[in-house]
Amino acid sequence: MSSSPLNTADESKSDRRARLRRSARLSAVQALYQMELTGQGATKVVKQFRDHRFGYDDEPGDYVEADEDFFEDLVTGIVSRQDDVDSQIAGVIKEGWKLSRLDATVRAILRAGGYELLAREDVPVAAAINEYVDVANAFFEGPEPGFVNATLDALAKKLRPNAG
Q1: Which of 6, 60, 115, 163 could be bridged to 78 by S-S, CB 3.0 to 4.6 A?
Q2: pTM of the predicted structure, to 2 decimals
Q3: Could you tell me the CATH superfamily of domain 13-159?
Q4: Where do runs of H (alpha helix) occur along the chain?
């Protein structure tokens, strides 16, 4: 049996949960981006991800292992609360900037992070911010990760002022 750093027999339950949620967050950003480009709805895109992108250790092919329920909550929650999420983000980005003018990937990252800060109180503020900065680093080498960090930090201070 081979072991990889991402799937070892001695991986703790909390480490596994964190890894699966990390994959779910990245997948949610990709799903939001796909939805924006294609105009497909959340239900259809969630089904596509569940049917064709997520897999299990014994399945052949290149699949992503993710917390599928968390992924679905992110995608459907962002869509159902998009006006609120967008207005919260718009309230903290620099004056003169509009959410609609941002890169589509940055917009998807901010929406996902904004949704978690707004609606997922079970997720610690630092975890949400750090995870989405990591997602931004996966896509960008320039100032975008810093912009994501600053925006989500400002949003967290507004939405969860007592979170520390």
Answers
A1: 115
A2: 0.86
A3: NusB-like (1.10.940.10)
A4: 13-38, 42-52, 68-80, 82-90, 104-119, 125-139, 144-159
